[in-house]
Design brief:
With 101 residues, this protein is mainly α. The chain has helices spanning 2-8, 14-24, 32-49, 66-76, 90-100.
Amino acid sequence: MPNYLEYALAPENAHVLAQYGRHVWGLVGDDNMPVAQAAIDKTQEFFASFGLATRLRDVGVPEDSLEDMARATIADNGGTCVKGLRDMYYDDVLALYKKAW
């Protein structure tokens, strides 16, 4: 999740993640980008505090399966892109998986 949030963060959607940070983590600040980044950091820290794996390799996903996973993700979401904070096409999904590996 933190890897996706980091990848998806952009000036046009920072207000969404900043709102999450303000409401969930009690963050303050008027500039959405730094608040959004702090919310992502807090989310990462939260997962780590439970000892949860945050890397795909930590849960046994082999690196050579990332391309197949990206293709399957696109196929499972209508065959074109994954909708979310930022539309993600095959190359985007693959880049996210590589970042998270």
